[in-house]
C-alpha cells in the first residue's frame, strides 16, 4: 500500500502535560468537526480514562487544514481541563495507553496517551476487563468523522488498549 502524505486529512493536535512532561497527540477528522465539537469528543474520550491516568492537563488544541503543513491554536473549550489524579514518579513518565484501529481501506490508526498509572499484568487492557477502556473505545467508534484514519475513512477501533513504555522517555529518565 502506497504511503499517503501526512496532511492527507484535517488534523487536530492536542498538546497536554502529564508527569512533568509535554506531549501531543493528533486526531484526524473529516474537516467538518468544529473546535467545540472536537473538544466534546476529546472530553468524552479522556473522561472515562481518568481513573487510569496521572493528572493530564490539556494545554492547547491546534487545527491543521487538509493539505496544509501549518497548525494554529483554536478554542475547543477543553483547554485547562484535567483528567486523572496524582503525579507519577520517573517510572511513570514513559508509560502510555495505546488505542489501535483500522479503516475499511486498510489503513492503521492509533492514539496514545501518556500517564498510564495502572498495572502491567498482560500489557493490554480489554473492554471486558475495564469499563474505562470500554467507554473510551465506544467514543472512538461512535464518533463518525472524528478519530479517522489517514485515508479519510472512519476507523474501527479494537476493543482494547495496549500498555507500553516509550523508549525515548525511558532513555531520558535514565540520564
**Which sequence of SSEs, written as H and E, runs from N to C?**
EEHEEEEEEHEH
- The assigned structural class equals alpha+beta
Largest sheet: 5 strands, antiparallel
**Domains counted in the coordinates: how many?**
1
What is the percent of helical residues?
10-25%
Give a count of the beta strands, DSSP E runs of length 2 or more.
Answer: 9
Please give the radius of gyration in angstroms: 16 Å
Strand content: 35-45%
Cα distance spanning the termini = 39 Å
Contiguous runs where pLDDT drops below 50 for at least 5 residues = none
Can you walk through the features of this model?
- The chain has helices spanning 35-49, 131-142, 167-174; strands at residues 10-18, 21-29, 56-64, 71-74, 82-83, 95-103, 108-114, 124-126, 155-165.
- With 175 residues, the protein is an alpha+beta fold.
- The chain has one domain.
- β1 (10-18) and β2 (21-29) form a beta hairpin.
- α1 (35-49) packs antiparallel against α2 (131-142).
- The mean pLDDT is 95.
Write the layout of secondary structure elements.
Elements lengths: L9 E9 L2 E9 L5 H15 L6 E9 L6 E4 L7 E2 L11 E9 L4 E7 L9 E3 L4 H12 L12 E11 L1 H8 L1
Antiparallel strand pairs: 1-2, 1-3, 3-4, 3-5, 6-7, 6-9, 8-9
Helix pairs in contact: 1-2
Amino acid at each position: 500500500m502506497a504511503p499517503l502524505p501526512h496532511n492527507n486529512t484535517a488534523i487536530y493536535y492536542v498538546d497536554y502535560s502529564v508527569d512533568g512532561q509535554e506531549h501531543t497527540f493528533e486526531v484526524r477528522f473529516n474537516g467538518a468537526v468544529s473546535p467545540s465539537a472536537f473538544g466534546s469528543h476529546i472530553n468524552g474520550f479522556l473522561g472515562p480514562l481518568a481513573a487510569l491516568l496521572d493528572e493530564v492537563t490539556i494545554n492547547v488544541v491546534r487545527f491543521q487544514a487538509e493539505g496544509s503543513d501549518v497548525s494554529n491554536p483554536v478554542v475547543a473549550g477543553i483547554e485547562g481541563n484535567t483528567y486523572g489524579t496524582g503525579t507519577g514518579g520517573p517510572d511513570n513518565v514513559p508509560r502510555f495507553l495505546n488505542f489501535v484501529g483500522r479503516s475499511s481501506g486498510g489503513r492503521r490508526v492509533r492514539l496514545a496517551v501518556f500517564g498510564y498509572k495502572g498495572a502491567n499484568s498482560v500489557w493490554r487492557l480489554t473492554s471486558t476487563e475495564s469499563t474505562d477502556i470500554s467507554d473510551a473505545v465506544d467514543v472512538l467508534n461512535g464518533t463518525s468523522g472524528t478519530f479517522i484514519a489517514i485515508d479519510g475513512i472512519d476507523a474501527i477501533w479494537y476493543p482494547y488498549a495496549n500498555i507500553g513504555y516509550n523508549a525515548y522517555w525511558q532513555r531520558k529518565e535514565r540520564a
